């Protein structure tokens, strides 16, 4: 899915760029895991590649996931978006003082780099990658609470939830959620920090645990969500969007179970035939993309 989105961006850059003799530069934010392959694809298509490391991509993430190989220019995120862009441009001037360059696109290579990639794209007037996790009118799209509020505002079905940073701020509002309930960070990756709690006592205990520990994906937002538990089959619906037109490219069904002391352990992700996919699931997904103002990516 990452590489498919990358091909879309490269094609888009080629079609929309002004004719110029300058070397085109692709900035890839946090090129780890599958994203590490993106630099090789970009280079093979004639782009100069700069890897940008965000503050959210901690040393633990970089060490745990296979990263970009040596040989590509690297820049660290700075105190502001403007300073980060200047650091990228300084790197380009330093390594190629006599060559003209133009920043053509800024693409996330991992979940941790999504927000930074979009903010840089917006700062430079580039086409936002729009992976569904950028900053938009309602706030940070990576924030699960912001996501649900956007769905409610658009009249779409949303999960009932209570959000807060302190247990005393949420405890009096949990009655409508029922038991069991899901307690999790507003921002995390996969099932990191997610727990299905069978009692209010267990919910309070996990709430306190989340407040006292860090997640794999570092985030300045430390709020915690208590959500109703949605029983049933879980699906993933992959889309590619261009100018607000959404195309379904793959659907999956997750196989999970309680294992090794964890409530949610992924055993497999099974691809679905088109006839196996509930049609309302695709239409709902596209409505969610519109609610979150995802237009490209």
TrEMBL record:
Domain ATP-grasp: 148-235
Entries under SUPFAM superfamilies matching the protein: Glutathione synthetase ATP-binding domain-like
Keywords, alphabetical: ATP-binding, Ligase, Nucleotide-binding
Pfam families: ATP-grasp_4 (PF13535)
Gene3D superfamilies: ATP-grasp fold, B domain
Keyword Transcription regulation among UniProt keywords: no
Entry-linked InterPro entries: ATP-dep_AA_Ligase, ATP-grasp
Protein's name according to its UniProt entry: ATP-grasp domain-containing protein
């Amino acid at each position: 899915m990452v590489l498919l989105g990358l091909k879309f961006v490269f094609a888009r850059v080629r079609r929309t760029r002004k004719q110029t003799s300058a070397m085109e530069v692709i900035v890839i934010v946090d090129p780890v895991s599958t994203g590490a392959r993106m630099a090789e694809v970009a280079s093979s298509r004639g782009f100069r590649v700069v890897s940008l490391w965000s503050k959210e991509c901690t040393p633990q993430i970089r060490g745990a996931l296979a990263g970009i190989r040596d040989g590509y220019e690297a820049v660290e995120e700075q105190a502001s978006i403007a300073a980060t862009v200047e650091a990228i441009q300084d790197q380009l001037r330093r390594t190629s003082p006599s060559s003209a360059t133009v920043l053509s696109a800024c693409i996330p290579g991992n979940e941790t780099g999504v927000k930074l990639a979009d903010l840089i794209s917006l700062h430079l007037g580039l086409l936002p990658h729009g992976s569904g996790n950028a900053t938009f009118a309602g706030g940070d799209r990576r924030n699960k609470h912001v996501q649900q509020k956007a769905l409610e505002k658009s009249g779409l079905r949303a999960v009932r939830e209570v959000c807060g940073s302190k247990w005393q701020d949420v405890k009096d509002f949990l009655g409508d959620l029922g038991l069991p309930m899901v307690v999790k960070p507003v921002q995390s990756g996969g099932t990191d920090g997610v727990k299905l709690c069978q009692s209010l006592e267990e919910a309070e205990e996990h709430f306190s645990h989340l407040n006292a520990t860090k997640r794999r994906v570092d985030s300045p937002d430390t709020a915690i969500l208590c959500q109703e538990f949605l029983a049933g089959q879980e699906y993933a619906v992959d889309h590619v969007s261009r100018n607000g037109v959404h195309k379904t490219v793959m659907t999956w069904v997750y196989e999970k179970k309680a294992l090794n002391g964890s409530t949610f352990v992924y055993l497999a992700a099974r691809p679905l035939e088109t006839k196996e996919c509930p049609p309302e699931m695709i239409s709902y997904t596209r409505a969610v993309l519109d609610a979150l103002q995802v237009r490209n990516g």
